[in-house]
Amino acid sequence: MATTKDFIIEQIKRSIAAHETSAPVKNVGRVISVGDGIVKLSGLSQVAMSEMIEFKNKNGAIYGVVLNLEEDGVGAIILGDYSEIKEGDEATASGRILEVPVGKAMIGRVINPLGEALDGKGKIEADTFYPIEKIAPGVIARQSVNQPVQTGIKAIDAMIPIGRGQRELIIGDRQIGKTAIAIDTIINQKGQNMKCVYVVIGQKASKVANIVTRLHKHGAMDYTTVVLANASDPASLLYIAPYAGTALAEYFLDKGEDVLIVYDDLSKHAVAYREISLLLRRPPGREAYPGDVFYLHSRLLERACRLNKEHGGGSITALPIIETQAGDVSAYIPTNVISITDGQIYLEPDLFYKGNRPAVNAGLSVSRVGSSAQIKAMKKVAGKMRLEAAQYRELAAFAQFGSDLDVETKAKLERGKRLSEVLKQDQYSPLPVAHQILIFYALINGFIDDVAVDDIVQFEKGLHRYAETTGKEIVRHITENEFNEELETEMKRLISDYKATL
């Protein structure tokens, strides 16, 4: 018979067996050295690449991201002010890969790459987080690009069309209108069922303020988020900015929506990554860039895609911007990004200074998606126009050497002058695609051959006003219907009736 003592011992054993102890296990390290936004750590033996680490101090937590895993320590970049971190400080691994807040609350806001508000409109409440690095969708998940992104810029929509899911590079020297093209494209997405993300990398704060003011003025901030890492921010924020912007775009992609993302510009992004890599003592390569600088941009731009219906049917269209030095497109970073993208819009300084703005060089620019990203009517008129533009360039160069030209050559030169005038366009005034088609049709069918070159701009503005008042049905048919003989007859009649009023 069990004694009271045995009973008590049995109870104690049961209590010990039932009692669970759980001590928190943390991966903790110490700061060996810190400077220039880079910190070297020891002791973080279980940390992962791109994992967030936390530094505690009297002013709160400062976060960093692991970029180097070495035999005797860890190299990380600091996301913020590193002056508060000292040698010997404790660093704790978070167990989370770097992620940023995303969601509809971000629309209409100016944020930094960590998702914090910069526009003074209060804190952004977001309950969804996306990792900034993500493997791009595979071949099976994608479908071909055949829906247009209307930029509202005549030279681009006609000769270098951009489709939903495409990556189209904007390249050229500084101060010749690269950002202007991107901003006009964002403004033109009003009513097009397209979300926009404008990623600013290393630009002046005053320039960004002007751009945001313009976007507000044109109502574009209703569907746009500005991700800002300006020139005074540390290189770490410039480095993660385009990835953070893409994470936000992928949130809407996963909901089956279409997104346009602009990276302004990836030249400064590469420079920031070079700075980080050299400070982390990674071996330099060509132009002192690290060996993986191609992978830096390829893994970013491959995330732009158009998904098939089985995977949601959304799209991300990317417009990366690259700045060249003295028109040198054969430099390291420009050739890298040209090889990754689906075409480029090349802006030429000579055209810009002659007053041909936007200064798009139609000969060196190309869209590898081609006319499949155009509506039927634009496809019909733009094919002839591109040929005429090419012929005009050759004839204009030839005509400089001789004055005795035949009648046909003179006619083509006159047509080319009018084409150059038609392709000129003011900034912040994108044009609806139906209006573009009307003026192009008038051009290639000789309706403006008898209009003086200096009067082309006024003729075009008058035609658009006349079409809006008298030819509303024709304008609607141009964008909705197949381009048939009946529609062509109506367009001819509309242009002829307008000319009769002059």
UniProtKB/TrEMBL annotation:
Signal peptide: none annotated. The lineage of its organism: Bacteria, Candidatus Azamiibacteriota. Residues 152-367 form the ATPase F1/V1/A1 complex alpha/beta subunit nucleotide-binding domain. It is a peripheral membrane protein. GO terms for cellular component: plasma membrane; proton-transporting ATP synthase complex. The keyword Oxidoreductase does not apply. Belongs to the ATPase alpha/beta chains family. This is ATP synthase subunit alpha. Pfam families: ATP-synt_ab, ATP-synt_ab_C, ATP-synt_ab_N. Residues 25-94 form the ATPase F1/V1/A1 complex alpha/beta subunit N-terminal domain.
